[in-house]
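I trust your eye. Have a critical look at both lines of this record:
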Amino acid sequence: MTKLFFEMNAYDINTRIQNEGRIPLAPLVHVHELHNGGLVMRDENLAVTATLVHHPPVVPAFAYRFDAPDRSIVISGDTAFSENLIKLAHGADILVHAVFYPPALDRLVARVPNAPALKASILAHQTSAEDAGRVAQAAGVKTLVLSHFVPADDPEVTDQMWIEAARTHFRGSVIVGKDLLEL
């Protein structure tokens, strides 16, 4: 992917090197491919850890934990319910979890010609808002931020409905994530 990125942007990169005196970009990029979970990087300010999650047919798929001196944040990525994610998120301050809302799923798939395949795909590799609450409760996180909503554009699904679904099993704070949200 990195090689193709450089190929796709070669004209722009080369123009900037020649015209603006920029240094070549490629030698500055050091790719480290992940195949399993574990420590991704650590310095004096941050440790990043990954774990494998279940998102077929994407293999491997990862969730990430960011531990700073003053807080810890876990990002689920796309995943079905995951015990690995629960372990990774144990005791975190914030869990950002991708979610779907089962009661609205049939309305979503009714709008597309690939309805059966889309529905099967969502059910196989996404987590319901209710199950995201289960994950957050089992992990003992303080705040659950719901994100990457499926469906994202159903006017019948309110923020309160997302929150109530997650609160079925989670007793901490639940936030409906929005673009540019800061916590």
